[in-house]
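>> Question from a student workshop board

For tomorrow's exercise we were told to take the sequence and the ligand below, predict the bound structure, and bring the output to class. My setup keeps failing. Could a helper post the expected result so I can at least see what it should look like? The ligand is heme C.
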Amino acid sequence: MRNSRLLLRSAPGWWLLLAVPAVVLLALLGAVHAAAAEPQHLAPGGPRPLETSCVSCHAQLDDALLEPTRHTGDDIHFLKGLSCHDCHGGNPAAGADGDPEAAHDRKLGWTGKPVRGQVPAFCARCHADAAFMKRFNPHTRIDQYSEYRTSVHGRRNAEGDERAAVCVDCHGVHSIRAVSDPRSPVYPTRVAETCGTCHADENRMRHYSLATTQYAEYRKSVHARALYEGGDTSAPTCNDCHGSHGAVPPGVENVAAVCGSCHGREATLFRETEAKLKLDLTPCIQCMVCHGNHAVSPPTDGMVGVGADSTCTGCHVEEDKGYKAAVRMADSIHGLVERLREASDRLDLAERAGVEVGPDRFALQEARDQLVEARVLVHSFDLERFLIAAQKGIAAADAGVAAGKRAAAELRTRRAGLGLSLVIIVAVIIALALKVREVDRKPAT
Ligand code: HEC
Ligand code: HEC
Ligand code: HEC
Ligand code: HEC
Ligand code: HEC
Ligand code: HEC
Ligand code: HEC
Ligand code: HEC
Ligand code: HEC
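>> Workshop helper replied:
Here is what the output should look like for this input. Compare the format with yours to find the bug.
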């Protein structure tokens, strides 16, 4: 064999001493591994993944012909016991004598390089074959291809559009990694960039009427911050909202479901109010009308009410019920925030002066909880329900303000007491001093 001779010729003697036991060990390990994962489609006694003529010949070629052999250690297919010919076909046992034609045997299904448009079908030959895939992993999904066909990418691909994404654009070709591998281009922290290679490239997307801002906007969002800065992989990236293989923009009906899959409470509140007040809230239940889709920013209290940042005045006009409710909601939130701040400041002051306010501070937590609750209940569009929370919060904050005032009064009393005792002490000292002087002045007799 050409390459083993090459190896032997260039190896110094001591290397062999190490290499022989290492090779034996590796062969043993290999045998154990192969016994566990020997793909059943291989002819019995057929070459192992790294021992085919495809690998050994291509390893000695250049550039694009060599490249595939450099990733056999990372590629999930090799790790699962598959090899070049499982994807490309051909005869893995032939060609060892240097004749590519014998290996590139079209009668044995050799495909050559699949044309771009055919890649999905090429991968689906296995990935959509339940019987084949279950041999490797009984829980593996086999719907990637059928999902892909429903996506905008798949539909464009079927029309012969070469620019739409195919499997290898998202997964790579010869270094395909498990999706749970952090180096995979579809790992949560890398998906957005992978989609962005096309969707943020004006040149590539110039044939379509799509914006190319999704990636840049997403990177500014609360979601991206949670994912990249907070390391929170439960925060969504592109495929959580669009699907991995069925990429389509969620329609009007589905946005609430997409966002609601994680933010269940907000989505449910709308539905509860629809039932309770017999309203049709379909136009406003789409979270995006108020939060946007890609650049979701941290919500502010200004978004409620009728001020400059209001999200309500987009649909409600002065004097309608929603408008009036918006004003009430904003006033309540604003009032609660103000009272909470006042209570907090007063308790801080008292604490610094040494008054014990621990229990009052603890009681104030109730006001904070109700503020959080009220902010969520904005999504109910149910003023009554909202006001219950807001008023509980205001009551708790008021109690905090009262406690702060009590502490201040106690402090004043203490200070007044201290002042009075100081005056008395000083008076006594003066009186004593006068007395001493009077005694001194009396002539001794
Ligand atoms: C003896 C060397 C040799 C062996 C063995 C060999 N190849 Fe090749 N292969 C080549 C050479 C040289 C080329 C480039 C010229 C050509 O296409 O024939 C090539 C090209 C290819 C291409 C790209 C063809 C294209 O359309 O661009 C694929 C895919 C490929 N080989 C797969 C395989 C597979 C799979 C096997 C094993 C079943 C295999 N090769 C075995 C030497 C080899
Ligand atoms: C998981 C399936 C899969 C495996 C395994 C695989 N290939 Fe490929 N290979 C492909 C696909 C798909 C393409 C076409 C990529 C594209 O369109 O960019 C390709 C392209 C190629 C090309 C053409 C490269 C070019 O840019 O012109 C060669 C050569 C090749 N493969 C050889 C190999 C060899 C050798 C092995 C084993 C070391 C191998 N392949 C293993 C799927 C596979
Ligand atoms: C637009 C990008 C994109 C395209 C095109 C794409 N995938 Fe995926 N694929 C993904 C993402 C993202 C995931 C990760 C899902 C996850 O993290 O759960 C994934 C996951 C997978 C998985 C792991 C199992 C699963 O379903 O989650 C397989 C297998 C897979 N893809 C195969 C394919 C095949 C085969 C094709 C072509 C028919 C394809 N993919 C096309 C993005 C893509
Ligand atoms: C010869 C059959 C075969 C072909 C062809 C094939 N695969 Fe696979 N692929 C597998 C098997 C088997 C696994 C391991 C599945 C498992 O363990 O869940 C796998 C695993 C994967 C995974 C990792 C899945 C995970 O759960 O992490 C991805 C991604 C993937 N393949 C993508 C592709 C792409 C893209 C193509 C086309 C270029 C392709 N495959 C072609 C058989 C194949
Ligand atoms: C190889 C380039 C490429 C990659 C990578 C890619 N896309 Fe696409 N995508 C396209 C093209 C081209 C279209 C078709 C646009 C059209 O027809 O309007 C498209 C369409 C879409 C659409 C439909 C838009 C519409 O309203 O028509 C969505 C959604 C989408 N892609 C999401 C994604 C996501 C999510 C990812 C990553 C997981 C991704 N894409 C990766 C090229 C790509
Ligand atoms: C939090 C959910 C979410 C995330 C994350 C997300 N999208 Fe979207 N995206 C949407 C929604 C909702 C729409 C529908 C917009 C509409 O109907 O007007 C959309 C629309 C699109 C469209 C259609 C054109 C447009 O701009 O309206 C494309 C393309 C797209 N997204 C790509 C991406 C890409 C690429 C990423 C990752 C960088 C991404 N999306 C991340 C929710 C999301
Ligand atoms: C895959 C789960 C997931 C999906 C889908 C999702 N989100 Fe989020 N969202 C999160 C996580 C995680 C956070 C970060 C929570 C944190 O840091 O407090 C977050 C944060 C937010 C925040 C900020 C909350 C705060 O208190 O600052 C808003 C607003 C938001 N998302 C709206 C949306 C909208 C609108 C959609 C749909 C277009 C959506 N989300 C889709 C998981 C998701
Ligand atoms: C009519 C406008 C509107 C719609 C529609 C809307 N929101 Fe909100 N959302 C708001 C406002 C206003 C706030 C901020 C309240 C505050 O901070 O005072 C908010 C806050 C949030 C928060 C942060 C809650 C917190 O604890 O501060 C999340 C998460 C959220 N919205 C998710 C959603 C989801 C999911 C949907 C769709 C089901 C949705 N929103 C629909 C107006 C809206
Ligand atoms: C996308 C449009 C839209 C936005 C934005 C919007 N609403 Fe509405 N709102 C509606 C529709 C539609 C109804 C159903 C009742 C109707 O037809 O008047 C409604 C009803 C309501 C109701 C119930 C009225 C009743 O009849 O009992 C309240 C309260 C309300 N909205 C408050 C708000 C608040 C507060 C905001 C801002 C945070 C807001 N809305 C933003 C469209 C919207």
